[in-house]
Input
Amino acid sequence: MSLETINFSKLNLRPGDRVLDLGCGEGRHAITAYLEGAVHIVGLDLSSNDLNTAKERFRDFAVDDENRSVAFLRASGLQLPFADASFDKVICAEVLEHIPDYQSVLDEIRRVLKPGGVFAASVPRFWPEWVCWRLSDAYHEVEGGHVRIFRSNELRSAIERRDMLQFSWHWAHGLHSPYWWLRCLFWERGASFGPVNAYHRFLVWDLMKKPALSRWLEKICNPLWGKSIVMYFVRENA
Output
């Protein structure tokens, strides 16, 4: 069980699709895509440790089916090792805020995405993220941390300039913003500090059990302070 940011119903995965999970981390979206249907996924990341974890996690889900596959690859999003128009779908979830030259990554995504293909991108939402930055410098100054706070219109415009048109969007993880505000407020005390640890245990319980009450609360919280904004684009046939 893992926390998913992307709504896979909006990707419209089809049998035989090739899917790139750029910045796959520990494999949450790559593995979910594998479980969704007969597709072939490449999970790409720079972190060897995260890729090793992703491979370990995938072993619990792998089946003997030549119509679906997952491959994990260490490479940079600034220079993707794939031919033009290689993928039907590209996922880039909670990655672009870490990359100084994110525009070049968008260029590469556009290059490897087939005309008519779908691109799903998510980044932290502006104002919940701004609160985190105000509460703690360490939150974003850690190695590999966030280098910018996106405004949604800024990112949408950057993507649409590359012949990809937005067709849907939503907020996600409304229950998670309060955790990060608490974590930032008590950063020096660490994640094990009482209120922070208690809220984290609640989030783990919610992830595992998915009770109706918290699903309802999430729907209410998402428009107010959803931690992430998720946008979906289709590449024009050009």
